[in-house]
Design goal:
57% of the residues lie in helices and 16% in strands. The protein has 422 residues and is α+β, with helices and mostly antiparallel strands. Strands 1, 2, 3, 4, 5, 6, 7 and 8 form an eight-stranded mixed beta sheet that branches. Strand 7 and strand 8 form a beta hairpin. Helix 10 packs across helix 12 and helix 14 runs antiparallel to helix 15. The two termini are 57 Å apart.
Length: 422
């Protein structure tokens, strides 16, 4: 909308100036000179105003102003303007063969004025904004986010700033098995179908696609466009992502008889957003401890058997809109601090009464486990387990208590990131 408004302003202004000069008859001497040059084959030019000539002036002014401002490459801007000028000359030449005089001067001046005004604006900070956003973000953001950035009055800051945002990491953990079981072409096709589905969905939900490689993708909510609800939107997107990737898995099983073992980690906190890289390769990205912790949470799912794990920062920001259950207290940045890790179950008011009861039993079991009241913890865990089939985190805690009873020390997920319990 910003570029459209500017194009209308500059195009209309240029056309108005030219139309005024045309109405005053200032182009008539030039018209007579051209008529004589063309051999007087047509009726002599009239100094009276022509309605269709005025319409042409306004059309040229608006269209040239718009294309000059909107086209990102400078060479293409010039090509379009020069093409319009040559078109005016060609029309005058061709119509003369049919004994019709056409004055190109008013149209050419409208093109020149509109191009000049549009070109000056396109070199300004506001005029370069669209080109910069496209170069920096390309297809990593949705069209809605793209035009929000283009039309925003907030300055584009690529030198670095602290921003509170939420990171989603989705990683494939059985890619080695898939590589062993599939031909290379099938492995690549299967992996790309998975990553494409996940990346496209998260971007359309408002995220920024920060990384996407052969094994994982990382998407940021809350940057480059500020969004105070970034944590809640990331949780909602994560839950829907599981359902969508489960559908992809079913299709992959039909085609290749294989499935992905994917897990998701979500974490919120302050991170440094900036343009990172070199002249050869650079992009907008994020950095910080909370970004790396999201990847660790993703890997920890394998340890507990869960699908989506949240950091405490995400839970605090999105607690009003999600249902979770506690999984583990882990060491924070300092050895004395402890941070809760949660399993994301569903959005608020989605779980059934039975599912809420199971969640509460699990929660009580974890509390008893931390207080080393193992018999009570087992009672709660077994009660939750018998209500509705298999539950990997429940089974994990039952096994952990059994190991502790036999004197086997509890293993922390930080030291066994990729260990799968059976």
């Amino acid at each position: 909308m910003r570029y459209l408004r500017v194009a209308l302003l500059y195009g209309f202004g240029a056309a108005l100036v030219v139309a005024g000069l045309y109405a005053l008859g200032l182009f008539h001497p030039l018209d007579l000179a051209l008529w004589n040059f063309l051999g007087r084959a047509s009726n002599p030019p009239s100094p009276r105003r022509s309605a269709w000539q005025c319409l042409l002036i306004f059309f040229l002014g608006l269209s040239i102003a718009w294309t000059t401002i909107d086209i990102p490459r400078r060479s293409l801007k010039i090509v379009v303007a020069v093409g319009a000028l040559l078109q005016m000359i060609s029309i005058a030449w061709v119509l003369n063969f049919y004994r019709v005089f056409f004055s190109p001067f008013a149209g050419m001046l409208a093109v020149a004025l509109a191009f000049g005004a549009g070109f000056v604006y396109s070199r300004s900070e506001a005029g370069r904004r669209k080109r910069i956003v496209r170069l920096m973000f390309n297809e990593r953001i949705s069209k809605k986010t793209f035009y929000t950035l283009v039309n925003s009055d907030a300055p584009l800051n690529f030198e670095g700033e602290m921003r509170e945002a939420t990171v989603i990491v989705c990683e494939i953990f059985n890619h080695d098995e898939l590589m062993d079981n599939l031909p290379v072409a099938d492995y690549v096709a299967m992996t790309n179908s998975f990553l494409r589905s996940g990346a496209d969905f998260l971007v359309e939900k408002g995220g920024y696609l920060d990384e996407c490689d052969g094994e994982s993708l990382r998407v940021i909510f809350g940057t480059p466009v500020l969004d105070k609800d970034h944590a809640a939107k990331a949780c909602e997107a994560g839950l829907e992502l599981v359902r969508r990737l489960d559908e992809v898995n079913r299709e992959c099983e039909m085609l290749w008889h294989e499935r992905f073992d994917f897990r998701i980690g979500i974490n919120s906190g302050e991170m440094v957003t900036a343009a990172y890289g070199s002249r050869r390769f650079g992009t907008f990205s994020v950095a910080g401890e909370c970004v790396e912790f999201a990847r660790r949470l993703c890997a920890a799912n394998v340890f507990y058997g869960s699908k989506i794990l949240l950091g405490s920062g995400t839970f605090e920001l999105a607690s009003a809109s999600i249902d979770v259950r506690p999984i583990e207290l882990i060491r924070g940045r300092s050895d004395r601090s402890r941070e809760e890790v949660y399993e994301l179950l569903a959005l608020k008011n989605v779980l059934s009464e039975e599912e809420l009861h199971r969640r509460d039993l699990f929660w009580k079991g974890v509390v008893c486990y931390r207080e080393q009241r193992w018999n009570e913890a087992l009672d709660h865990f077994h009660s939750a387990l018998t209500l509705n089939g298999a539950d990997a985190p429940l089974a994990f805690y039952i096994r952990r208590i059994e190991h502790l009873r036999t004197g086997t020390p509890a293993l922390e997920w930080e030291s066994a990131r990729f260990l799968r319990f059976t």
